[in-house]
Design a protein that fits this description.
Elements (H helix, E strand, L loop, with lengths): L2 E6 L3 H5 L29 E7 L3 E8 L13 H5 L3 E7 L7 E6 L5 E7 L3 E3 L9 E7 L4 E8 H6 L7 E13 L5 E7 L17 E5 L2
Parallel strand pairs: 1-2, 1-12
Antiparallel strand pairs: 2-3, 3-9, 4-5, 4-10, 5-6, 6-7, 8-9, 10-11, 10-12
Length: 212
């Protein structure tokens, strides 16, 4: 499995620097090796970073794309699923029974749900209250979605084992086709080696290693 090392920082750093400031991420490893196995078209560069401080894991997606599509008709599941977004999935093991999904857009909308194999999603499920938050910023040529997730909530779902969190890191990019309809390009850190686009499969996960 692919591995990404999550650097440990002093918990006071979060109090001194906001997570949207580049200086907060100075010590973080930069993950850029994303792929879109189901399309030959190129896609905008993505930089992902994560840090932790024993209390929270912090994450940051910076996407170098100036054409962002957001379906703003409402805040429904369908609307978020039809929008440009970034995603983190967490699992206890390869059985995926269950696993937990966070899909987030630049409007700070969060689609959080519990999932089981074969596309069995519980959209009524929510991440524990006050255990996660996100921030975002949109610039001329990029957007950033950053946030934090409590270590306590990850432990509650048995998602940290031997300082490893098995994680999927993804992006959905919507572009207009020749008919003017918005269609997605699916982008993943790990190539799941499937014939059709599919993040909801054990082979799309890698390992986040919490460094001490």
């Amino acid at each position: 499995m692919k591995e990404y090392q999550v650097i440990l920082i002093d918990r006071n750093q979060k109090k001194e620097i906001e997570i949207l400031e580049p200086s907060f991420w100075a010590k973080a490893n930069c993950l850029t090796d994303f792929c879109s196995p189901w399309k030959s078209d190129s896609f905008s560069k993505i930089e992902f970073r994560a840090l932790w401080d024993l209390e929270y894991i912090y994450f940051n997606f910076q996407v170098f794309d100036s054409e962002i599509y957001i379906d703003r008709k409402d805040d429904s599941t369908e609307s978020i699923c039809n929008s440009d977004r970034v995603e983190l999935f967490f699992r206890k093991d390869e059985k995926l029974s269950p696993y937990y999904c966070l899909e987030m857009d630049v409007d700070k909308r969060i689609l959080d749900f519990e999932a089981y194999p074969n596309w069995n999603f519980d959209y009524n499920w929510k991440w524990p209250e006050n255990q996660m938050e996100i921030q975002s910023v949109k610039k001329q040529n990029s957007f950033t979605v950053a946030g934090k997730i409590s270590i306590a909530s990850l432990e509650e779902f048995d998602l940290i084992q031997n300082n490893i969190i098995e994680t999927g890191v993804y992006r959905a990019k919507f572009s207009q086709d020749e008919k003017g309809e918005y269609k997605p390009t699916w982008i993943s850190w790990v190539n799941p080696n499937t014939a059709e686009p599919n993040f909801h499969i054990a082979s799309s996960f890698g390992k986040f290693v919490l460094m001490k």
